[in-house]
Amino acid sequence: MNTIRIREGFKNEILYVLPQSIIGPAVKHPLLHSLMPTDIGWFPQARYHYCEREQGAKEHILILCVGGQGWCRMDNSFLEINAGEALLVPRRLPHVYGAHNDDPWSIYFVHLMGSDADYLLEQLFRNMHTLKVAPDTINLLEDDFRRCFDLFPGGFVLQRLVYVSQILHHLMGCLFFNNRAFSPALGSSNFYDLQLTIDFLQQNIHVPLTLKEMARYVNLGVSHFSYLFKQQTGYSPMDYFIHLKMQHACTLLALTNQAVRDVGAAVGYADPYYFSRIFRKIIGVSPSHYRQHSFDNGSPYLRGDRDA
């Protein structure tokens, strides 16, 4: 480890820190008390970067590594952080981190406080402090960081600080729930790509797919596929597919004048009476009643009462 240690002051860095005189009153705002940023920045190729907090920080810390390598020591463990990974440091946890000597990291970072930040870090398993980030998610996170950088110079203005908080809600939502490389439900970076299945179901909304066909598409056994799918969505694959079909049927009933039998066929039900029965079970009313309600509320299309 180098004896040269630099906490900040890197070429082309961005660093904004809110003073306590701003944080104190702002955190009482109803849109800030759940997720409040206090520090945010960008350290590119941060050679000799080193930060040690013997008592931990008052806030949770998110570090997104987009280039190079870094390291962190906490919870009696040593972690290596590579490009395409995020480091999450819980508040009040003693820690020390820094850049790799030969390949220093480039990092975005933000300090967060509030109940939503507490909840999100609870999604990590015990002693889990790093998670992989899919390339498309990294792009979204970088965009959000850059938006915050544009706004943070005016962070003394409450309206701008609220806007930054909302962007950070999106950033954290993407990291935890729109990240193909991480599943909070499984507490792991090792899981199958749920979006592949969802895309497959949407492309075959008109087909009565079987569970076996779904599992085969993502090269998984039926039982393992069903387990992973329910862990990540809360639905069994077949229940999810039925809800997806009924959602599409609602759109067709509200925005077209297709006969109910044709709407049923469009979502994979050759028997119009069976389709109506399933529709009522999921939506709570019959297809014709749903359509009537839609038109009564101003649908731009002519009424289509041609029920099966």
What does this structure look like?
The structure is a single chain. By secondary structure, the chain is α+β, with helices and mostly antiparallel strands. The protein has two domains: 14-177, Regulatory protein AraC (Jelly Rolls, Sandwich), CATH 2.60.120.280; 194-296, Homeodomain-like (Arc Repressor Mutant, subunit A, Orthogonal Bundle). It is built from eleven helices and ten strands. The protein has helices at 20-26, 115-122, 135-151, 158-177, 194-203, 211-217, 222-233, 237-255, 260-266, 272-283, 287-296, and strands spanning 14-17, 36-43, 50-53, 60-67, 69-74, 77-82, 85-89, 95-99, 106-113, 130-132. A six-stranded antiparallel sheet has the order 1-2-9-4-7-10. A hairpin with a 2-residue loop joins strand 5 and strand 6 (77-82). The longest helix has 20 residues, at 158-177. The protein starts with 13 loop residues before the first strand and ends in a 12-residue tail after the last helix.
